[in-house]
Amino acid sequence: MAWTSVCCQYDGTFAGFLTCVFDCYANREEPVEFRTPDDLCCSLYPLRTVVSDPERAGRVYRSLPKLGREGRRLAVRGFLTCLPDKELWLWRLLRLGYARGPGFTQDLTDPTVDKVRKAVLQLNSEAHKYTGFVRFSLLDGILAGEIEPKNQVLPLLRPHFSGRYPQERFVLCDRTHREALFHQPGRWAIVPVEEFHLGRPGEEELAFRAMWRQFYDTIAIRERENPRCRMTHMPKRYWAMMTEFREDWDSALPELPRRTAP
Amino acid sequence: MELMDKLNILADAAKYDAACTSSGLDRAGRPGTIGSTTFAGCCHTFSADGRCVSLLKVLMTNVCVYDCQYCVNRRSNDPPRAAFTPRELCELTMGFYRRNYIEGLFLSSAVLVSPDYTTERMIETLRLLREEYRFGGYIHAKAIPGADPLLTRRLGLLADRLSVNIELPSAKSLSLLAPDKKKEAILAPMGQIRDGIAASRQELRVYRHAPRFAPAGQSTQMIVGATGESDRQILSLTQGLYDKYRLKRVFYSAYIPSVSGPDLPAPQGFQPPLLREHRLYQADWLLRYYHFRAEELLDEERPDLDPRMDPKCTWALRHLEFFPVEVNRADYEALLRVPGVGVRSARRILTARRVGPLTFEGLKRLGVVLKRAQYFLTCSGRAPRGLKISQDGLLRHLIALEAPALAQPMPEQLSLFDPPPAGPAG
Ligand code: SF4
């Protein structure tokens, strides 16, 4: 008998999503839509409100190795991507994986594998770009930076920056998803934040910003100027948070137009 | 002199060096230190000329006892001169590194007093960085030809990558334009570094804590277009450097007149050969990742790369007997020879066809550029439907595909091409 089509309403967390997966399997229901508290409108399908439950989520999570290493990676990272209807795609991916076993990820031309894999590639590539494009300011002994990524890159950036600055206290704020990574020697956490303001830069901070901008301008070879090439490698959307493009950062504190999270 | 002014002078003097990569070494950060490196390297920004900026690239000093004609810092020229103290350079590097502006330091130098003296200053800087500042980020250092091999060795124990610039593509050009530099004096440290790297690898296998000598390998660069060598000469030299000296990279830098000299091209109206440099990089890519040899790409009758098309297309058109390649059976090497198939898509083809035979539709999903590849492939014996084209037409077609990129003031650096498996900073 065909599974009943339903719309799952959940809290938008990974644990919540995994709880949905558990319930849908248990009740033999096929989710055709997922909604989070941020989505407003109504649905044509019977609504299932799923409350995130560590027990059921844990059971699904522990079953992920059945998808193989690559399959598990796609499922976990897939949830961090900005793929539209990512929950639906991941639901399909899970069903495919449970049915076919670890080798299913080799089927690169399968529409579901293809879709999720490309979204994860994009996530990885955005995270890789940010390992370079993040700019910290040293404010009162704490390194502080902000980013506006499309995907949820903080969990991917965490091991990189914690490994790189083991002795530093730093905070990196993701303004798109309103969360921040806090790190101090031996400890770290990624937590939701509502408001985030950088403090006033001191003399030394201003001097370093100025020297960096000077270096950046000097290193370009005039005879080779190539704005298009620069844009391909470093699209404009990154520039707003980069010291070398913020003349005002030499004197003022970085106060950027607030953007509301999606 | 203010630090800002020194930075200005010594970054400006270093900017013509093409290498700014931080690749070739994975080193995790350790408690009590600061810094790490990643194998793929990392670009921290892109300058207005579209080049990746990964390292703080500066000269220790631009005061020089030599007189290379093409160089602004030559003895007979009169630019503003400056020198960093080791301490200043350390503070600058650490300040930039903590703020995540850079991946590390690229330290080069003009020859102050003597090669030995210069190298000692560089060693002192790197020693401070590593020992006192506990810096674990990337360091690329230039070995100075003519320095005592013991000093070069110490430099290599502190740096991750060493390079010796071969400067010009032939000994003749070298003696003409850089009379103080001898081919032998350049090749000697190159050989020493190669042997040092090999020995260090060997020791590390036996003893995990053996000192590491230039663990990210060695590179070099040469100026293209200041002298008359053909692409064939340049590529054979490159091939030889990869074979004999086990270099990680050879960089090419299109000559840009910054000073005038009797044996240099006249600066008036001189166009830096950027397209040529681009084609050389593409050909270099083929040597390093696509299992091509220099002699396959160019020969006596055709000593220069075709400016209209990438070298892989040119090769394919001259070897139509090699095609079509059958996607579902061909081995990795054969797939790599197909225009429009890169290293990554070739690997994906191998993976995906284990599940079932591939179609043209499927190839598109794998990232194969069908616009190019379709002329050279079959899927289970079939060519794409409706595709009939003469050899002549094919040439015109492939040229037309690149035309939009060439119509731009400058071709996009390397981005027409598949990125190497190692990532953006090769
Ligand atoms: S050695 Fe030659 S190339 Fe190097 S700085 Fe001196 S003059 Fe310039």
Describe the structure.
Chain A is of the alpha/beta class and 262 residues long. Chain A has three domains: 4-125, no CATH class; 134-199, no CATH class; 201-262, no CATH class. In chain A, helix 1 packs across helix 2. Chain A is elongated. In chain A, a hairpin with a 2-residue loop joins strand 4 and strand 5 (142-147). Chain A has helices at 14-27, 54-63, 68-78, 86-100, 111-133, 154-164, 203-219, 227-233, and strands at 4-9, 29-35, 47-49, 137-139, 142-147, 170-174, 179-184, 187-192. Chain A has eight helices and eight strands, in the order E-H-E-E-H-H-H-H-E-E-H-E-E-E-H-H. Chain B is α/β, with parallel strands linked by helices. Chain B folds into two domains: 3-222, TIM Barrel; 311-407, no CATH class. In chain B, 39% of the residues lie in helices and 9% in strands. Chain B has 15 helices and ten strands. In chain B, the strands form three sheets. In chain B, strands 3-4-5-6-7-8 form a six-stranded parallel beta sheet. In chain B, strands 1-2 form a two-stranded antiparallel sheet. The longest helix of chain B is centred in the middle third of the chain and has 24 residues, at 183-206. Mean pLDDT of chain B is 89; it is low at 409-426. The chains are: A alpha/beta (262), B alpha/beta (426). Bound molecules: iron/sulfur cluster. Residues 64, 66, 68, 71, 73-74, 110-111, 178 of chain B line the site of iron/sulfur cluster (SF4). Iron/sulfur cluster is lined by residues 64, 66, 68, 71, 73-74, 110-111, 178 of chain B.
